[in-house]
Amino acid sequence: MSFDTLALQPADPLLKIIGAFRRDTRTEKIDLGVGVFRDEDGNTPVMRAVKLAEEKLLREQQSKSYLGPEGDIGFVERLADKVLGNAVPVERRHGLQTPGGTGALRLAAELLAKAGVRRIWVAAPSWANHAPVFLAAGIEPRFIECFSIAAQHLDLAYFLEELDGATPGDAVLLHGCCHNPMGIDPGPLGWQAITEVVVRRGLLPLVDLAYQGLGEGFCEDSLGTRILLAAAPFGLLAYSCNKNFGLYRERVGALWVTAPDAEQGAIAHSNLLALARANWSMPPDHGAAVVRVILEDAELTRIWREELDIVRERLAGLRRALASEGRIGKVDLTQIARGKGMFATLPLSRTQIDWLRDEHAIYLAGSGRINIAGFTLPTIARFCDALRALDR
Ligand code: PMP
């Protein structure tokens, strides 16, 4: 036996950028590549609410015995109340804890495949891991090229027109808020229009909500999710707590299936539990327990929400500062102020991206995606100077 039938797989391009950034000895270097929040000092701190919840767990947790494939159900239920409110009644939603948003997406894709779904429609460009996750579960992603990077614009009419041509029973992926990598969301009227097509065409919506609270506000950021899942008979919600609780490597996530009645929901849920059991048996506990402790405690929730507000305000402030630089060559920064969350994608070629790295120590993804949180006010000025030099 040998593995000589296997071909060498390329390293994740973002990991390569992280490595190159780390090795770069220039002190003025700027990292706009990796998708984590950074404060004004360039750190990705542990939130105070998280530290307090961890202290409480350390003092009070009595056992680390197994839970089950559903994970920490107190975490799942508290989170569902916060995210969905009463838009989706309790008997219509059935959830389980997953290893991060990625685990939730993978499980959702496996459930879709098991239910006979073959295709998922996705607005392009999308998060680079969406296609691999769906393909790994045997679901074919169908991309709708409806974002213009040059104009920083979502052509929603085109997206809806293409979606209208989908076969009933197809799935459609929607970013709940803070689109990665474009930072452009449909807005309440857009969500209404999407919901109308999804319901009329009999499509199955899968919402990927990975940045709740980093866009317009915690409640505002799940408005579209609530509109859609309240109206569609069946749906899926893949959730990540890794950005809005700053828990990244703890891998905290959840997946809910929504169904027209408790009986059909219970069947779908039992399939999710069986799939989870075959994948990871049960999810890692610590991060989800931390989120549960925060959500169970009014004072910890208050502290966390204040910290999340600071994250959101920092992103919005940096967006305004970038936008105030106007248009630089082909890059129209004015639209950035209208964007939401951590990302935007700029119309830059590979040669220009390499030049920014080599000449100015500015690192961004090969797609032109920038992490807004990678900036500080002084580095925005440096970045814009570099863009002006690029244009000359
Ligand atoms: N969905 C989107 C759109 C994302 O950007 C990410 C993380 N970058 C995820 C899901 C998954 O996040 P995680 O697995 O870290 O929870």
Automatic annotation (TrEMBL):
Biological processes annotated in GO: L-phenylalanine biosynthetic process from chorismate via phenylpyruvate
Necessary cofactors: pyridoxal 5'-phosphate
Domain of life of the source: Bacteria
Signal peptide: none
Keyword Calcium: no
GO molecular function term, any single one: identical protein binding
The keyword Electron transport is assigned to this record: no
SUPFAM superfamilies named among the record's database cross-references: PLP-dependent transferases
Pfam families hit by this protein: Aminotran_1_2
Entry's EC annotation: 2.6.1.57
Residue ranges of every copy of the Aminotransferase class I/classII large domain listed in the record: 28-387
Swiss-Prot/TrEMBL keywords: Aminotransferase, Pyridoxal phosphate, Transferase
Any single GO CC term annotated in Swiss-Prot or TrEMBL for this entry: cytosol
Family: Belongs to the class-I pyridoxal-phosphate-dependent aminotransferase family.
Assembly mode: Homodimer.
The name this protein goes by in its record: Aromatic-amino-acid transaminase
Classification lineage: Bacteria, Pseudomonadati, Pseudomonadota, Alphaproteobacteria, Sphingomonadales
